[in-house]
Structure formats: structure tokens, C-alpha cells
Specification:
The structure is a single chain. This protein has about 230 residues and is of the alpha+beta class. The chain has one domain. The protein has 7 helices and 5 strands, in the order ββαββαααβααα. A 5-stranded antiparallel β-sheet has the order 1-2-4-3-5, sandwiched between helices. α3 packs across α5. The chain starts with 6 loop residues before the first strand and ends in a 5-residue tail after the last helix. The chain binds zinc ion. Zinc ion (ZN) binds next to loops.
């Protein structure tokens, strides 16, 4: 895969500096962008971002912790975005500095009301890669009000290139936050699209996918629907 043409989204005074990376990649019509293809793309994109950060003399901890890849039906464009680094929240100062799209901000606000209001917030302050990639899609498609209702593919990887399921409710030990799972449903993803990540038969897990060699995973796909 060629180098990713990352765009740095950056802003804020020193004490509230926030940044994230976004990119789009257009494929010709004859490329079939499957969930596996998208996952490998996200993994390569993360490797590319890590290399860039280190090449620029930054510490690895300054590299965003996740990259999310999104494909919507009807186009062969892959949208890529990192999580957001820096202080603040979305909605909040981080969101204003980065100019996060209203569709995204409003969906996060609705989640806050729907899931308890008050101190019940997005677990990672709304700064996950899923939020950023959705923002990117809305910014690149300003005349479209909603994401297509079905057929979307989305996958997130961590710095190691492992699949990271969307963050979810955190109701343990006094914590009552919600997460990207709730946000994605609110912004127009179906439950299947969110929970499938790599499809039910892929058995994705937060400790790293693929758990075994690719050959095994590919065979598992053959069982889908059976
Ligand atoms: Zn999240």
C-alpha cells in the first residue's frame, strides 16, 4: 500500500492543544472493499501513522492510540481517522478547536441525555477514532444529512494493529459512562454494523485479532450464515 496522505487536524493554544489525523483513499470501482480489506487497510494506516510520528521525532506515546476505517455503500472511498490527542472534550473545547461536525456533536449530546445525562459521559471524552471518522465523513459529504441506512463497514485498530471494538457502557465500580457503541447507533449505524466489526464469525476480540493465522480466520468466514 502506498503512503497515506494524512492531513493533520490541529489547533488550540499550548495548554489545550489537540490533534488528530484524517485521510481518504479512493479505489477504482473494480476493487471489492470487504470487511477484511478494510481491516488490513486500517492496520497499514496505523503502521504508516506510527512511522510518521517517529520520523518527525515525536514519542510513540504522542501517536494517537487508534485508527478507524469507514466505508459507506455506493462509493469505493475509505475514510480514515485517528483518535484525538490532547485535553478537553467533544462536545467541548477539543470539539470546537477541531471544528467537529454538528451531526456528530448533536449525536453525542443526544447520547448524553439518553444514557442518563449529568455526569454520565462518553468514556473517552468523545475523542475516539470512531467519532473522528464519522466527523470526516460528514465534512466530506456536506450536502448529505444522514449516513446510508445499511451496508456500512467500520473497523478500528489500536497502535499494535489489533481490532478494537467500539467502547461501550462502563458501569463497573461507580462508573456509569457510555461509549462509541451508543454513539454509532445514535449517528445512524445499525446494531449489526457496530457489533459485527469483522462479522460474527470472525470472533473479534479486544485482545487482538486475528488470534491465529490468517488461514484459520479465512476458513471461519466460510461458516458465516451456517
Ligand atoms: Zn470509543
Amino acid at each position: 500500500m502506498e503512503k497515506i496522505d494524512w492531513e493533520e487536524q490541529w489547533g488550540g493554544a499550548k495548554s489545550e492543544e489537540v490533534y488528530a489525523y484524517t485521510a481518504t483513499r479512493q479505489y477504482s470501482g473494480n476493487v471489492n472493499i470487504s470487511q477484511e480489506f478494510l481491516y488490513l487497510h486500517a492496520k497499514k494506516a496505523m503502521e504508516d501513522l506510527r512511522e510518521r510520528i517517529l520520523r518527525e521525532g515525536w514519542k510513540i506515546t504522542e501517536c494517537p492510540g487508534a485508527v478507524c476505517a469507514l466505508k459507506v455503500p455506493g462509493t469505493n472511498t475509505i475514510y480514515l481517522a485517528s483518535s484525538i490527542k490532547g485535553p478537553g472534550r467533544v462536545p467541548g473545547t477539543a470539539g470546537s478547536i477541531l471544528g467537529i461536525d454538528d451531526h456528530v456533536v448533536n449525536a453525542l449530546r443526544r447520547c448524553r441525555i439518553r444514557y442518563g445525562g449529568g455526569e454520565r459521559r462518553h468514556h473517552y471524552q468523545g475523542k475516539c477514532a470512531e467519532v473522528m471518522v464519522t466527523h470526516l465523513w460528514f465534512s466530506e459529504n456536506p450536502t448529505i444529512e444522514d449516513l446510508p441506512k445499511s451496508g456500512k463497514l467500520i473497523v478500528t485498530v489500536n497502535r499494535k494493529g489489533e481490532v478494537k471494538l467500539p467502547c461501550n457502557f462502563y458501569w463497573g465500580s461507580g462508573c456509569s459512562d457510555w461509549g462509541c457503541k451508543q454513539f454509532l447507533l445514535e449517528v445512524g449505524f445499525t446494531d449489526d454494523e457496530v457489533t459485527a466489526t469483522l462479522g460474527p464469525s470472525w470472533e473479534p476480540n479486544i485482545h487482538g485479532w486475528p488470534r491465529s493465522r490468517r488461514g484459520r480466520a479465512l476458513r471461519r468466514v466460510g461458516h458465516r450464515g451456517s
